[in-house]
Every structure is written in structure tokens, then in C-alpha cells.
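Reviewer 2 asked us to include a model.

Predict the structure of this chain.
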Amino acid sequence: STGPKVFVVKKDTVEMRSVILGQKEKNMIIIKKGIKEEEEVVIEGQLNLSNNVKIKILK
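Predicted model (C-alpha cells):
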């Protein structure tokens, strides 16, 4: 499907999800639907990812 997507962290893999975006506030965009508040979203390196690929989180 088309539209905005994000990668959600699932232990050692990622899951691609469609999201519904809300308004932009300063340097952030609100995600209205598609992820839960406590879920982690990939914010760097998304171009190298695909659905269900194994990841290693660097903090």
C-alpha cells in the first residue's frame, strides 16, 4: 500500500507499518495511528531496512 511507513523495533527484527500522520510541531510530526506509544521506531538507517530483517540496536 502507499502512504507513510515506519519501521517498528520487535526484539531483534523490524516490522514495517503504515501510519497516519497528524500535524507537524516544531521539528516533529505526530503519528496519529499505526503505532503504540510505547513502541520504538527506527529513526536512522531506514534506507537499509526491509520488513522482518534482523537488526542490532546501537545506543
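DSSP finds no helices and four strands in the chain. The mean pLDDT is 92. We have added this to the supplementary material.
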